[in-house]
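Late entry, evening session. Most of the bench is empty. Finally got around to the prediction I had been postponing all week. Sequence below, unchanged from the version circulated by S.P.
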Amino acid sequence: MADQPVKAHFSETVTLPDGRKIRVSAYPDGSIRFRVDGLPYVLTEAYFSGNPEKDQAIMKISPGKQGSNAAYNFVQELEKRNLS
């Protein structure tokens, strides 16, 4: 029998000014999951060991297209959407 998925003990959705939504879920084992609506994203910054003095981890994702670099201009994409 397969393991049952662990249910999050905390979930919250944040709506960004442009309408995209981010959902953050925390699980009993200490893991955290992020779900982001919108374009594909690329991981552009990660400090998973964090700063020992501050006990923090930092992650940054940026909009990107498959095969492109992270410098993809999201503002231009939003303008295209508004013109359509």
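Two things to note before I forget:
The beta strands are 10-15, 21-26, 32-36, 41-51, 56-63.
The radius of gyration is 16 Å.
Will write this up properly tomorrow.
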